[in-house]
Amino acid sequence: MIDVKINILSDEELLHMLQTGSNQAFTVLYDRYWKKLFTAAANKLNNFEEAEDIVQQIFISIWNRREELEVHSSLRSYLAVAVKYRVLKCLNARFKHKHFSDIAAEEVLSELSDDSTQQWLEFHEVNERLQFLVEALPEKCRLVYEMSRVEGRSHKEIASTLELSEKTIEWYITKALKFIRTGLKVFFLTL
């Protein structure tokens, strides 16, 4: 049974507990993010089984690497990138399977076997690029983006804190996301 008080802890506190082997912290994080990750994967893949498998793989990986797990951004961002990476890998496997003969497809799929070290290195490259892009944003734009995406604040809260209109907050976030998407798209094309 999970202690009710653990549910109110921040992601960072739960991650710290997870690193010491806390099953309860893992369960709270799983419950907190499973549905969001599943929805994101299912929307891209249009396949519930594949989406569920991807989310399970992510949480298995987190549990297996819990002692050395380092999250330099927010856990939400870390998990979002993990889902995107695995969705891309799944779509790539689908594409290759569709366009090659059965024998070639089997070879490609065997080459795509779980290589967690490579995935981890690629994730760090993407995460470093994301951090670089966020830091390259104009100061006010970066502040609004971080308050929204890292701290999880609503547009209304940010507008109130910074004494700006909600429309202005939306504009800053749209500008930041466009800049980051463009920067990441170029990054993925060069990999």
The helix-strand sequence is HHHHHHHHH
Q: Give the overall shape, derived from the CA principal axes.
A: globular
Strand content: under 5%
Please outline the major beta sheet.
none
> Based on DSSP secondary structure assignment, what is the total number of beta strands?
0
Class inferred from helices and paired strands: mainly alpha
What is the rounded Rg?
19 Å
Low-confidence stretches: none
Q: Helical segment tally? A: 9
Mean pLDDT: 80
Distance between the termini: 45 Å
Share of helix among residues?
A: over 70%
Give a description of the structure.
With 191 residues, the protein is an all-alpha fold. 79% of the residues lie in helices and 0% in strands. It has nine helices and no strands. The chain has helices at residues 11-19, 23-45, 48-64, 75-99, 102-111, 116-136, 139-150, 155-162, 166-190. Helix 1 (11-19) packs across helix 2 (23-45), helix 4 runs antiparallel to helix 5 (102-111) and helix 7 packs across helix 9.
